Amino acid sequence: MASILIVDDLISIHEMLAAVIHPTGYATAFATDGEKALARYKTEKFDLVLADIDMKPMDGLTLLKQLKQYDPGVVVIIMTAYASTDSAIQALKFGAFEYLQKPFRVDELMQTLKSGLEFRRVSLEREASLGAPSAGRAGDFEARFPGESAKIKRLITQLQKLAATHTPVLLSGELGSGHEIAAELLHTAGSAPNSPLVRLDCRLSSEQSLRDSLLGPNGAGGTAVQAARGGTLLLQNVQCLPQFAQMELVTVLRNNSAQFRLICATEEDLEKLTEEGKFHEELFYRIAALPVQLPSLRERAGDIPALLRSFFTVRGTNPQFDARQIEFSEGALATLRAHRWPGNLAEFTQVISQVISTTDTRVITSAQLPLRVHELKTWPALADFLSDQKKQYIARVLQACGGDRVKAAQILGIDILCLD
Fold this sequence. Notes:
48% of the residues lie in helices and 12% in strands. It folds into four domains: 3-130, Response regulator (Rossmann fold), CATH 3.40.50; 153-295, P-loop containing nucleotide triphosphate hydrolases (Rossmann fold); 298-374, Helicase, Ruva Protein, domain 3 (Orthogonal Bundle), CATH 1.10.8; 382-419, no CATH class. It is built from 19 helices and twelve strands. Helix 1 (11-21) links the parallel strand 1 and strand 2 (27-31). The protein is of the alpha/beta class and 420 residues long. The strands form three sheets. It has a five-stranded parallel beta sheet with strand order 2-1-3-4-5, with helices on both faces. Strands 7-8-9-6-10 form a five-stranded parallel beta sheet. Helix 2 (34-44) packs parallel to helix 3 (60-70), helix 6 crosses helix 7 (150-162) and helix 18 packs across helix 19.
């Protein structure tokens, strides 16, 4: 039998809620303030906490934060009597499952409790079935995000932990940094075999398509939401959702949050857009409960050799050579590390595919790389790499040339830009 802890400083509220909830078969317990509720939760545990926001000495938001610290998987529904949604959004920000504004209807209360208890059940089942990541699943993460850099190791650890949760995840990062790879890993490691992974690109969807596939009638969710039941819904480029869709999606998530795992991906700073009023605040806190920042390729340029080895194994093809025997010279590796990779992993895949498939030599040199890989946005100063003695020598050559940088560069045998 599911158990619910009701927290309110009014005994009349306890009595009213008990009269409504008991006939449904749920067990109830009561506390008159946050401190008593926290102590009781720690000793008895409950499937769900239904707490008023306005209590003393510990209010509902403080109780919520302390419950989340003690048990990150706790399901808390906040009740608020305020006409404004500010307190409700604060509750979502701190991890509340849902909020109810007083006075609420009985059917609204029961539907919210049912959704919260279902969410808790699914979360516990997922945790029990997955447990700690197995060696095989850990290998999947490392194979899809190869590298030894601190940032990629931290990303893999974070994704492995999140795979066992049912809470929405927000993947942020530059274009081509691996949103879809991360989403696929979370889905595969955290879902039952053959469960659906439904993708919807908000940037490419028309208004009618969003209504049909995402929103549906009366907040029930469209075809994509229905198809994702029991699995994962991936919303790509969620920052591109128009305002009407952002507002209606809040209702869809309220009605369906326990039915699928939601993963959203964005190339922009969604929190900043929210602060600027360009993204729906309540929707942001509903989808950003677990934020993940994907590093750009230039932030982990040291992982390029590992990425090349992975590429040879998975994708490399060449009519003349076994791709696994192809090597990159030290000069070529240096060029690849120096490139800024604005398209990140997507650009890297395109460049290496082109080079491997067309090379007529087993060892690829820097000269064989596409021109755009050689182009630097800012040239490094030669002085950054020289000893003090060499810097003094270059200064004397410049002085002897009367400050003529072109002549000095010719004498030194270096590019004039390196003298900047």
